[in-house]
Design a protein that fits this description.
The chain is of the alpha/beta class and about 425 residues long. It has 15 helices and 17 strands. The strands form five sheets. Strands 4-10-9-8-7-5-6 form a seven-stranded mixed beta sheet, with helices on both faces. It has a four-stranded antiparallel beta sheet with strand order 13-14-17-16, covered by helices on one side. It has a two-stranded antiparallel ribbon with strand order 1-2.
Length: about 425
Amino acid sequence: MSTHARPRIGEQHCQECLVSIGPERIREEFPTLWTKVHGKPLVYLDNAATTQKPRSVIEALTRYYTEENSNVHRGVHLLSQVATQAYESGRTKVRQFVNAAHDREIIFTRGTTEGINLVAQTYGRRALRAGDEVLISAMEHHSNIVPWQMICEEKGAALKVIPMNDAGELLLEEYRRLLTDRTKLVAVTHVSNALGTVNPIQDVIALAHGRGIPVLVDGAQAVSHMPVDVRELDCDFYAFSGHKLFGPTGIGILYGKAYLLEAMPPYQGGGDMISAVTFEKTIYNTLPYKFEAGTPHIAGVIGLAAAIEYVERVGRNQIAAYEADLLAYGTEILTAVPGLRLIGTARDKAGVLSFVLDGIHAHDVGTILDLEGVAVRAGHHCAMPVMKRFGLPATARASLAFYNTRADLDALAKGLHKVREVFA
């Protein structure tokens, strides 16, 4: 379907509500959504794993590689200056997107995982001693578990876990009890990738700060679904990935309060993270560059900036409202499927519908749905402790974005009836 006859959403001068734009109009901007799989129109419901990209992002990447390709910083020729301007403008765009106080508080990483590892290996290595504790939640992604296990093992510290109830909600009273003088850091997800739970992150942060404990937030599943203001949250660190925000893979963000980042040692050594090097001593660069060794993912930053611009033009509050309606509709029609049980029924949820079908393995569910053109995720979702908590080997997971429609969810429900027929 051609879109050349009218301006793209990313080119409009006014911010319209998703409802007035219309979901089909939105979908025109995402080429992958118009493909077919197994001869059937694609119904893409795997957005928690990665999101599709609008044309404005794809074109930004193409423009960089065809017209502006050069390394950033230090170059005196025009292409390098153009690339550097685009790269640093991307940093400013991210800073505005999360409302950080300064550009130097925005560190470019490969993704959420690297951001968390950076904090664990720098702040964690300096802060932790034998007998100290790091506090995480029972619903964390492996990337917010394993780095803390590694540094705790190295330092002789302990990893403590905030429990959750059967709905997938954190038990705040238990969290309050776990906060002690031994707690040196709290690391908690904003939105669970396996359950969709939106955690009361401001309460989590306030309780920790009441005892002088810093907080890292895994925001990988939050930034595409809702506005995020790091100063309003008052978090100390916030990490997220570009590819879950309609941007490229291999690019991510670590926000950190400047005074904390200033005190942390570099994560890696190499080019650009230095101001002077001799064989006797190296003087490190200033923020944010001391954490960005080597040639960065320049195209990734440019593509992420384009993705942020697109999301802002659609409107983050509008996205949140539209997806809340989709989630309510999806919950209603899935609970009507015989033998289906939703895993994760928190009162406050983002667009994740994890479920099991009685007597049918999640991988079989995902395989049959794929043959029907419906793409969902099946497995443990890099959250094996969550599966253990609910006594399951795996779930099937449908995850939403603002380009999804009620028709997509109808196709999912129809596909699930097909699954039941196949295994009857």
